[in-house]
Design brief:
The complex is a heterodimer of chains A (about 280) and B (about 130). With about 280 residues, chain A is mostly helical. Chain A has one domain. In chain A, strands 1-2 form a two-stranded antiparallel ribbon. Chain B is built from four helices and no strands. Classes of the chains: A mainly alpha (about 280), B mainly alpha (about 130). The interface between A and B is large, with 64 and 68 residues.
Chain lengths: ~280, ~130
């Protein structure tokens, strides 16, 4: 295979991963890493490094739109980034200590969990919980407008959310993914923030979280420019395309189908890791 | 002195962050595409072997030479500079937040965002060592 064909194939695969990532709401990183490792036999460390770069690009690119709409909460994001960046630093150091077999198994479990969350129905939060003291002291509140109606919200169970965020950061640094599914879990389920605020703030935080492990990745040679180029451009292009499609087409059935693809990828990662092939 | 209306300054902050992110990512993507053009000048070459891990570190000091032009035609250096700029974009975003919170006289969040900035700088310059 020549470098031209190789780059084109990786680009096309990354485009598909970005598209799937946007349509399922899981992000491109969680899909491109198993594809690179299982289909192209790329070493897991190179796959993780390239994915991390694409995650930073996608997060920064889509945050432009969200921040301008005033949907993401900069204070809540910044406060929780304390947890995610520290977690990411820990995760990046763990990649140096843990064998790739184990990383593959952990990756597979995260894939299974992520696929499961896209099947789960969203519950409405009870709207009249008492305001949380820690949240008020830390100014973890805000408001957003939807269809001309103003919605006010305050965060709840801040320590629990903070703890889950640390875990999300560790996974992000260990696996080179945005771990948006876990970030949304922390904000939506634990802290009871509105779903829209959770998803957009999570997206906004992903870039900063990923940047915290990038330093370790750079110094250890996980990021190969020749591989990062097609992966980053492909995933970015695919997710921009995917978010445009989301607005136009009803994608519910598509989403279920893709979730099965992700379940299969997760099972294959666990199997390959456990049998020592990754 | 009249206190600035918090919501108005939050909106200005949002706009500043959005502009900063757009600038950073456009510049990084342009460099990556330029580097990619150089990189694919000889498309019939063999690609690197990615099935085995070699671990060649990206050296931040070497990248200065891209700026002075001595390594401009070296595709790897241009790509590396694009990657480093991409990583620097969220870091610059946090730095901007430190300044903006200071302007809003929000001491608590100046401290919070400054701490996040320190973690990021530690990772970039001391991480992996």
């Amino acid at each position: 295979m020549t470098v031209g064909i190789f780059t084109a194939l990786i680009f096309a695969t990354s485009l598909l991963a970005g598209l799937l990532g946007a349509l399922t709401g899981l992000g491109g990183g969680v899909i491109i890493v198993p594809m690179l490792a299982l289909v192209f036999k790329v070493d897991l460390r190179y796959a993780i490094g390239a994915s991390l770069i694409s995650v930073i690009a996608t997060s920064s690119g889509s945050a432009v739109a969200y921040v301008r709409q005033g949907l993401s909460n900069v204070r809540i994001g910044m406060f929780l980034e304390v947890a995610t960046t520290l977690g990411a630093l820990l995760g990046a150091y763990l990649t140096l200590k843990i064998s790739t077999h184990w990383i593959a198994v952990i990756f597979g479990c995260v894939l299974l969990y992520s696929a499961a969350t896209s099947f789960r129905k969203r519950r409405k939060h009870p709207g009249t919980a008492a305001p949380d003291r820690t949240a008020v002291a830390l100014k973890l509140s805000g408001s957003y407008c939807e269809n001309g109606v103003r919605h006010d919200y305050v965060a709840h169970r801040v320590p629990l959310g903070f703890g889950i965020m640390f875990g999300a950061g560790t996974l992000s640094g260990l696996l080179g993914i945005g771990s948006g599914a876990v970030k949304v879990l922390a904000m939506d389920v634990a802290m009871r923030l509105p779903f829209k605020v959770s998803t957009t703030t999570s997206n906004f935080m992903i870039g900063v979280t990923a940047a915290a492990s990038a330093g370790v990745y750079l110094a250890r040679g996980y990021i190969d420019p020749g591989l990062a180029l097609p992966v980053m451009l492909g995933v970015l292009g695919g997710s921009l395309l995917g978010s445009k499609l989301l607005i136009k087409a009803p994608v519910h059935t598509l989403r279920i189908v893709f979730s099965f693809v992700i379940l299969a990828l997760g099972a294959e990662m666990i199997f390959s890791g456990a049998t020592g092939r990754l | 002195m009249q206190k600035p209306r918090p919501e108005l300054s939050d909106m200005q902050m949002d706009a500043a962050i959005a502009n900063m992110l757009r600038f950073g990512i456009s510049l990084a993507a342009t460099l990556m595409i330029l580097g990619g053009w150089f990189y694919l000048q000889h498309p019939t070459m063999q690609p690197s072997d990615y099935s085995h891990f070699h671990g060649t570190a990206i050296d931040l000091h070497n990248l200065g030479k891209v700026l002075t032009g001595t390594r401009l035609a070296d595709s790897t250096s241009v790509l590396e500079l694009g990657i480093v700029l991409l990583i620097a974009t969220p870091v610059a975003r946090v730095a901007l937040c430190v300044v903006d919170f200071a302007r809003q006289r929000d001491k608590l969040y100046v401290a919070v965002s400054f701490f996040v900035l320190l973690v990021l700088l530690y990772s970039l310059f001391r991480g992996g060592r």
